[in-house]
Design brief:
8-stranded mixed sheet; alpha/beta; Rossmann fold; about 220 residues; 2 domains; globular
Length: about 220
């Protein structure tokens, strides 16, 4: 492991806006994120697979009346997001370092108001279908921790993942579905609030249409 990564891991271990294994409150905030961590009763929004936290931080700046948690397992990426949040003095932002499969261990049923899945790994191989973050396995997890009527958003550049997700949602009889295979040439772009991730900017520069779905699981 590089010295740079080690320094980043050491830094996030000391930060109050990052929770990971070994921290005092790690795994102890189920049903208590608002009261204990954020010390308010504002709506709770998750970004699943948040990477560098660009969406998490971007939303937190736009919506100070909400709490945001970026979830990812990559410590070096969370260092970037948590650094941005600290520089911007955003106290409505936190980062949780866990595998997505473990989110049920950290949130109570109905605790979350909204979930964003931004440019996840499309997992194109058939043997990896269950690892796609919009597979039935993960949709069931989201449904448990979301409040009734809670919304999931998906942004992706990958057409196969977009079409796969549509098929899964249709099989589950999902209602209140909004969809577009070309977000920035649609009337849905206002739903994404003008926030762009590093990957998104790269795809847009290459002329790749961005796909977007909004649904209640």
């Amino acid at each position: 492991m590089s010295r740079s990564k080690l320094k980043k891991f050491e830094a996030i271990a000391e930060r109050e806006n990052v929770l990971q294994e070994g921290d005092e409150n790690f795994g102890q905030l189920v049903g208590q994120w608002r009261e204990v961590h954020f010390e308010n009763q504002k709506p709770l929004v998750l970004e699943i697979g948040c990477g560098r936290g660009e969406y998490t931080v971007g939303m937190a700046k736009l919506f100070p009346d909400k709490n945001f948690i970026g979830v990812d397992i990559k410590g070096a990426r969370l260092w970037k997001g948590s650094t941005l949040a600290l520089e911007e003095e955003l106290y409505n932002v936190a980062f949780l370092r866990v595998y997505v499969e473990q989110i049920k261990d950290h949130f109570a049923d109905g605790e979350v108001d909204e979930i964003w899945v931004t440019f996840p790994d499309p997992r194109p191989r058939d043997r990896d279908i269950k690892r796609r973050l919009t597979s039935p396995r993960f949709l069931d997890l989201y449904k448990q921790i979301l409040k009734p009527g809670g919304i999931v958003h998906l942004k992706t550049d990958n057409l196969e993942l977009y079409e796969y997700t549509l098929e899964v949602l249709q099989e589950r009889g999902i209602k209140n579905l909004l969809q577009t295979s070309d977000l920035y040439n649609s009337n849905l772009q206002e739903h994404t609030m003008g926030i762009y991730t590093t990957y998104e900017k790269r795809y847009m520069a290459e002329g790749v249409p961005i796909k977007y779905l909004q649904f209640q699981p």
